Give the backbone structure.
Amino acid sequence: MEKKNWPLWEVFVRSKNGLEHRHFGSLHAADATMALENARDVYTRRNEGVSIWVVESKHITASNPENHGELFEPAQDKVYRHPTFYDLPDEVKHM
Amino acid sequence: MSEKEIKNLEEIFEQRIANDEKIEPKDWMPEKYRKTHIRQISQHAHSEIVGMLPEGNWITRAPSLRRKAALLAKVQDEAGHGLYLYSACETLGISREELYEQLHTGKAKYSSIFNYPTVTWADIGAIGWLVDGAAIINQVPLCNTSFGPYARAMVRVCKEESFHQRQGYEIMLTLSKGTTEQKALAQDALNRWWWPSLMMFGPTDAESVHTEQSMKWKLKRKTNDELRQQFIDQTVPQADLLGLTVPDPDLKWNEERGSYDFGAIDWDEFWQVVKGHGPCNKERMNARVSAWENGAWVRDAAIAYADKQAKAKEVAQAS
């Protein structure tokens, strides 16, 4: 039989209801069911979570740090998107 | 890329680390940074995995259910720590198979402390107290290291490590307050684990070749000798509290330094064990390799089952 390795999965855990799932780490598993079971054992041994997502790492498309400039720099000179850009007298309350 | 361009990138990179910025896996990094991190993180992961073996030796013979449950949980944590660290290491572009291969062929090292035998139950106490105690001192500064995935893994590891040390000290405490024989077991374990624990901090600063580079990359915050002194200063009073004697006739409080002076470490022993001639090097590697090989059919069966399920799903969707 051809040698085949267990693929890599990324694990996201919701620590409690009301909070979002957050990336916790990764692990290897043969399929999604096993990835969930392994994630339970590896990342939630001390009540760290109430819900787990697993997704095979190869399905994640990530931005490239080399494109950091074109992706994120345009936001830097748009200070008018922030409330502090606007000059209002101190007498104006609740705004 | 030209040499000049690389030099420029390296300068920017070093500056980022100096500014306390984190480096993430897809960022550009010097080849030496990548290699050093693969070496250190994988050694760390291997140590967690091999570290399960000396303690696993006592799970079935733990003296009570309470002790057994705690030891099982501790060993399970160590498997978990190994997995966090392997994952962090894989983000640097090395596969899990390569990492295992390096461990199994002896190309990669693991902490020498695990090449000592656990001959009595008291050794489980001494390991938790001293070996995990030393590991905590080594690991806490790594929570702030420059490589993001390593730092995040270490935060998780450090949170869990404190229980390990406390369960060890509690075992020592119980034995020390027990019968004469039990107290003798505790003293004997301290006698055997004290010096190897001091060696866990690595060679003296004068002999340590990687210190300067590791400091720059925040793989180290304090030198080996500073960490070793910190360990001694905090551990000796704990031994006093147990009513046990640290096996070092030269150990003496130095009022001026505000630290303990201690005797010479047998570095020949350290290098012998590193080079593979410790009491259990062969036994540990045999146990690890045979566990891996005997588990091959399980890994293959899981993949075969996953493939079958995936195909069945495809057929069901097509019809």
